[in-house]
Amino acid sequence: MNTDTTEQDGTIESDGADDVPSRITEQFENIKRTRRRRAIGWTGLFAFLAFATLQAFAATELLDPDARLGTFRDSLTGFFPLTDYFGVLPFLDVGRYLEFIIQENLLYDPEIGGLLFQIPPNPVDVYVFFFQELGIFQIFGEAGITLAMGFVGTVIGFPFALVFGTLGSERVTPFPFNFIFRGTMSFIRAIPAIIWTLIFIPFLGLGPSSAAIAIAFDTIGNLGRLFVDELEEIEDGPIEAMRTTGASKPQIVFFGMLSQVRTAFIAWTLYIFEINVRIGVTVGVIGAGGLGYVLTSQQNLLRFTNMMATLLAIFLLIISVELFSQRLRSRLRSDDVEMSIWELITGFPNRMAESMLK
Amino acid sequence: MTYIDVDGLTKRFGDTVALDDVSFEVPEGEFVIVLGVSGSGKSTLLRTLSGLLSPTEGSITIAGEPMVDPRPGVAMIFQQHNIIGDMTAYSNSLSGGVHRSGFLSSVLQLQDDDEKHRALDALDTVGLLDEAEQKARSMSGGQQQRVGIARALVQQPEVLLADEPVASLDPGSAQSVMGYLRSASEDRGLTTFCSLHQVNIARKFGHRFIGLRDGKKVFDGYRDELTIDVIDDLYGDIDTEGMFVSDDGDVDADAAVDGVAQS
Predict the structure, then answer these.
(1) Quick one: average pLDDT of A316-327?
(2) What is the interface pTM, i.e. ipTM, of the complex?
(3) Which of A170, A258, A260, B18 has the smallest C-beta neighbourhood within 10 Å, fewest atoms?
């Protein structure tokens, strides 16, 4: 290819050397001018960006930072404690992480779990576990509290998001009025969940309950917005079809519109659930409980090893939720025949092995 | 007795005239086929008849009542089926009758047994009783269109409008869908309007034909009047040779229906 073009270029040049038509030179000059103008434009843009960045550095005190490398190095040895394995091999002391995770029930609460896991199983205790201690979240200790905050937030937020999202769509509510609902959702979104928690503390006190309600509020804003966007994409056909059946307005909305986006709505809700668990960690930091609270209290005590152990627990929680939700979403979105839950569980090792061999 | 009365119907979209002073009368129970090339105004005519569009001028009266908004008595079948892919054939069929029940009972499918039997009966009419629990999305184009017909039947209409119901189907499915459409309308005594652009299918299934060209009615007559010259006029310069299949069809129509129902 390359040689071909150079050859061609060569012939054109030798041909046109005697008399280059003026329109060609004109166009050539034109192109040259545009390129020069563009180069100046880009240089100006870069200069401006550099200037603005400098100002921003000044505003964030990064120009004259109060850097303490020594302290940071000390904290790093706290974050990543070393120990000598077999007396000679220095390596990360994983044992200290595990010790803290177990001691503070970050991932598993033995008191509640003990009811369930007994040999032989005790039916009375199993009953107590499910119906008196209501333990299916609490068995996961602090991680369970964070997970439950995200879960409750999603469950309470969903119906409101559905109503606000549907009524915010221009096809359901005529133009100026749908902005009542869109505006409400924008307002909710403008305030981060962590601030909503602060607002609910006088109402429910500093703890997981205000965090869960705050997350529910946040869900209305974010999930509702996703619903509105999704409803913009639907086809007119089924709506028209429902109109010709003589259905009432709510029936047209449900059968003509919502049934088109059911799968998408479930998928978005799972996605927001993922995010809500993450928010559960951040609102915990201001004292609402769960892993976030453990993290911030260990930071206050300058126990960096314990902080790192909590971070590991957070990592595990988020990754599991994400894996679960993504698998479920891709299953929903694909057109394959749906697997039953039983197949989903029993077939897991097999599918896992298959995908690892690929 | 005149059942559908269209008088001086004109529909304009901005400067475009889609229908230009179209008038006709249709007695009860006729199977009318609307012919014409793309853009001749077939869809606009049917959509105006269904009440989805309102006429710029002129009037439509169906069963003595002016047609201003969509109503249950006038059912419509669409080229793109417009059924709901995420629901089963049965739920789609049932959704044709929601105008008879309240919001909650239709959403939760708590209609009475009569209503549910009606939905299954309609599926039986289009030969899909065994596929009732299949997701509509997983069905073939022809089957989806038959679900569309079932939904229209559950509506219990007096008039059935079909806007190019077989335009996106292969010839075999097209024949079978048209067969189901005609037998359903005959069995239930429905006045039917069906727009088509395949002349051979039109001749095979229609009683009466209305031809449109550039929004004007250029032909209105029964089968023996639909000559090759009329077709030539309707389709203008297009080579119509071969589109005009000789009339040995009606026996085949039923045979085709049976054949597809078994497969």
Answers:
(1) 91
(2) 0.84
(3) A170
